[in-house]
TrEMBL record:
GO CC term (a single one): cytoplasm
GO MF annotation terms: DNA-binding transcription factor activity; transcription cis-regulatory region binding; zinc ion binding
Annotated Pfam families: FUR
Protein name: Ferric uptake regulator, Fur family
Organism lineage: Bacteria, Bacillati, Bacillota, Dethiobacteria, Dethiobacterales
Binding positions (Zn(2+)): 93, 96, 133, 136
Amino acid sequence: MSTPQLLKLLKEKGYKLTSQRRQIIEALRLTGRRASAREIYEALSKDNPHISMDTVYRNLRLLTEIGVVHQISLQSGAVFELDDKRHHHHLVCVDCEEVVCIPYCPEAKSYNEFAGSAGFEVLGHVFEVYGRCAACREKK
C-alpha cells in the first residue's frame, strides 16, 4: 500500500499519519518480512531513541484494527506484516513458526452463505491453520 493510500485510509477512519505510524509502516516495508513488535521497536529506536515499546504496541494495535497491518499469532508471540489487501491466509508451523501464505480462501463461499443466512454482513476474517511443516515432521 502506498503512502497516499495509507493517508487516505487513515483519514477515512479518523486518524492521522503520525511520524511514529509512518516509521512503523516503513520499518515493516523495509524488512520485507514479518516482524515482532520488539524487532520493530529495536529497528526504530536506533534512529529515534525517544520512541517507546508502548508506542509501538499502541500503533501496531491501531494499524491492525484499521487494516493497514496484519497480525499473525505464533506460540512465541505475534508477528506483523503490512496488509497488502490480497485475500490470503496462513499455514503456521507450531514447532519452527514458519508461516506460509495460502493465496486463496478455501471457504469464502461457505462463510458468505452462512453469514447471509444468519443476517450477518462479513467485513473480513482471519484463517490460520496450525500444524507441522515437512522439515519439522522429519525431525520427529
